[in-house]
Amino acid sequence: GWSAKGGGTAEDGMVLGNMFNEPLEDKERLEVYTGLTSFLYGPTNVGGMLNYVYKRPTDVPLASVTIGDYGGLSGFTHGDFGGPIDKEGRFSYRLNIVGQDGDTAVNFQSIKRDVLTAALTWHISPDASLTFIGSHYDQVFNGGDVAWSFAANPNGSSKILHSVVPDPALNFGEPFTTYSTQRDRIGTDLSWKLNDIFTARASYAYSQVVVRDYIVANNSVANSSGLYSQTDSHLPDYHFYANTGYAFIDANFDTFFIHHKLTTGFYGNDWRYAYSPTSYAAGSFSNLNFVSPTYFPEPGFAQSNIGPARTSSYTTAKNFVLGDEIKFNEYLSALVGGNYTVLSGDNFNLTNGSSTSAYDQGHLSPSLSLIFKPVPFISTYATYSESLQPGQAVVNGGSTIYTNNGQVLAPFVGREFEIGAKANVGGMLLTASLFQIEQALQYASYNGNGTYTYVQDGRERVSGLELTATGNVFEGFRILGGVTLLNPRDVQNNTSPTAPSINGYRPPNVALSMEKITAEYDLPFAKGLTLTGGFYYTGEQAVDRLNTEFLPGFTTEDLGFRYRASDLLGQKLPFGQEYVLRFNVTNIANNHYWLTQNYVGQPRTFMASAQVKF
Fold first, then answer.
1. Is 58 helix (H, G, I), strand (E, B) or coil?
2. Which of 352, 404, 495, 587 could form a disulfide with 556 if both were Cys (CB 3.0 to 4.6 A apart)?
């Protein structure tokens, strides 16, 4: 699934902050929530959330082994096993093991990954179960995608345009750049049906990420000569720690002719970020060209200000939740909710540990949705929701100096209004929605003397139309896709004598339109063979706040097939119960395009795998 309104991310319904690495092999599905999420999950993007759901233990034996190539020569092996442990079935398990190593489709780029995720469920009784999940993820990514920056005028407008797109298959960074990380997570959840009315559910997870080695390449384009310069930087070691959990009581009951599904409880999380004050000398190179990349020996990266990792920032969110899904009759229902959020944060000086800035703010975020079903297969709705969101952390970067460096701007309230309809027609789910999302306008205001001040002034507003279609067009032909049209605008409250107005301009990095569709077709003359494909279009997006440059829209296409076989030429398989072969090509035409103002898109990539289910 996909949505233009998707915002924050969560695992098993628990927001853990940006924990960077998210393997998919140990996930059962990716859920896309739009709209009414903030009253349950606290400070998230008001437009919605992506929820990664871990694979759970199975009641029947499961065994699957997949080998393949994620592109280039990046081979992998994935084992997925599960089933009951004892004869009574009170205990069951799930185990996912992944190993990947090799070059990607980009020159001099490689990735090595190891995933180990284990889950154990204890069926305490027919109405209660307790699950434990532990996960370890190790990744070393060498020769990573280079970040590009183009010269801007002092007022923030574009000075040099993105007129050339480097070949994405050529690595314009350096082979010695690296991103080496380790992530560990433990979690548990309890589900207990107390009686016919009440159900209790609780969950907790702890996650930590250590960035062990981090060397990045940044390419800077200062003029239109066709040349650029490169800076290679060794960043200090980073540490991220997060706790999150919830405890809810759900109740199903009737009051006269009205049915209720009531939820109340507490949801909370914290997030601590630490890094070393150690500084490393950077390597600099110039007079490089866009046609053929040049590679250099790794610089020495001499160290200074050496010291251990210390806490840089700490944030907490406490949420007290009450929500009710009310069904008046078969035609009319409502979802009413509220979340009182207390959001706090502290930033610290790495040298002496003193607080450099802090905030502590509470807000009641209401949510309301009315649903009307004129006929059983059509639902119409109107929705309003709010979400308290943390403000921007201000940090100097390169030659950009902020007068309020080290400050964290105040939390702000995001709001969404939406009306829409959903219809089940044949085997298709069709949806249509009109929405408006707004949040605080945060930007760097030029002071006229070479410095900037990061301010929170006005609103950033996005109005849009979204249409989606999912399901069977006819027997054997399935689609998932949609169209989103956006009208993003900055609404500025104040003007500055040194910075030009941005009122009414388009915010950067927001595309005006997106069209995406994936399709599958089961060939009627070849049992088990399915053709797959996809078409993806992203419209133009502004590069700068003053709208002096726009990245053009781009299109990519995928094509592949999947073949399932439960026998071999009419005979029983030599081993296993089913074979699944997959092949896919992404970006078939090998289009060169700017994905964002800082990164180019991925080149044409061939992927293949063979799976055996036992």
1. coil
2. 587
